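Collaborator request, handled under Task 6.
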Amino acid sequence: MPHLLVTISGHGLGHLAQTGPVLQALQRRRPDLRLTVVSTLPQSRLRERIGPALEPVTRALDFGFLMHDAFRIDHAGSARAYQTFHADWPARVRDTASWLRAQSVDLVLANAAYLPLAAAAEAGIPALGLSSLNWFDLAGFAFAGQAWAEPVLAEMLAAYRSAAAFIVLTPGMPMTALGNTLRVGPVARVCAPRRAALRERLALADGDKAVLIAFGGFDRPLPMADWPLEPGVRWLVPSAWGIRHPRVVASDTLGWSFGELVASVDALIGKPGYGTFAEAACGGTPLLYAPRPDWPEQDALVAWIGEQACARQVSDADLQAGRLAAPLAALWAQARPTPPLPVGDEQAAEIILRWL
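Structure tokens returned to the collaborator:
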């Protein structure tokens, strides 16, 4: 029984959205696969996206960035966190390598942490990376020109380069510095649309629209109490926002999975993130998004979604103020291209099986 240990970053839900379909494809090909999943994400989320046949381990192997909210990096806090994380890097790698040896694994797959890649190399275990991004390129952008970052970035890059390969999902960052990348197609869980059932569940009148707002697992409540919530749109938002209005529905109380909602609403409003963009594009759901100026991954995401999907950018000021009627109308007036096929899961699974 081959044993695969997978680490999934807890920095939002996009890393799980990327990894889940790949692991499901692997399990279809190798039903005998023993699967250990290491993450700080809730186990319920892991099982929803991957399936019940996994051994969950709660352990933090990366943190990505500390965030003020879904859109803004805490640069000062992240800088301190990276300096602490690398204060005794060789010892951290050795400790993690010892832990990996104790797991008796045949292969390590990391999305998108670099510590398990360095530790696997130390332990003599084959390892692969998988993601649309890597923390080296993002940290290099965030901390450019800061003297403390140079040795940290060097250790990050060496860790990523130690992997047998880094599987880059479409759309993904260029990652030219890594030198070991293999590119595959989009990865997305596309659910069958249940539009009629959702409209009945929401008691929508003829001509009304259902719009889902989601920011990839990060909390960023919008001031909807101040919005002009005119008739014609039913807004689906997290219950944690505490919005009480007849045209606002708590999306997580409907009993539907996120993928089912994305496939069934008339539009999705979110931020540039892999899971949001890939699932909206591959599912044919119109997407309205606000920019993330300090997140360089968005360049690849925005360029791809503009070609592959019905999508439109809205300013953060308009999003905050709820001035969304005109952008949504323009979005719905756009032509809808043929959705791209989410073939990356099977392509990535084939690559991973070469090392199992």
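The cover message to the collaborator said: "The chain has two domains: 3-186+344-355, 195-333. The chain has a mean pLDDT of 96. Please let us know whether this matches your experimental observations."
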